[in-house]
Amino acid sequence: MIAAASRPQPETKATEMIELKKLEKSYPQGAQRLWVLRNVDLSVREGEFLSVMGPSGSGKSSLLAALGLLDGDWQGEYWFDRTAVHKLGARERNDFARTHVGFIFQQYHLIDDLTVRENLELPLDYRNLPSAERKARVGDILDRFNIVGKKDLFPRQLSGGQQQLVAVARAVVTRPRLLLADEPTGALHSSQGDMIMDLLLELNREGTTIVQVTHNAAYAARAHRTVELFDGWLKPDEAARAAANG
What is the pLDDT of residues 216-231, one digit of tens each? Predict the structure, then answer.
């Protein structure tokens, strides 16, 4: 894995993968609406590692859910490599997300009554892959993440760091182009958090585009770029920088 002191360098020739235009998200609140995202314009390049920061309630997780198509109830434009995601129907969005996006959650979201191997196989079950290829992919990911010896254990038999390692492995077993991480180190102690960050940096170096939400300034600084949200708005200076870099 990459040493903890290493930092990935931005790819100068990278093309734009994601473009959000005036993305907004709100909930009804009595006679008014509670806005959690307001006029978000943001571009993310192919192969970029982007950190999103901001106080609690600023809209970070809502932004990540929109990017990962976990939530389709928003307004605005979302372009993914020239695909108009905002024009897709619900089923098309689900299929698109399964094909292109991997998601890492803070609380792991592993299935308690499935073994590590079965948890890794689960996202592949949604794809039309031959059985031999599914087994090969799971075998490769178990080996790469050094968890072959854990394959028959259940999540409750693993430490927090090991569970998050399995969660990362599950997110990348489908070989997504975009990896989204919602506070991936938030529930871990420092050495486990460093391990997960090193792994994310390695995946990014190999070409995976990553957007992470984090409260940890040191981890955020290891990305290529950081944007900040406040009350659903991108901070003006960061929005300008995002537009310039896009």
Answer: 999 999 999 999 999 9
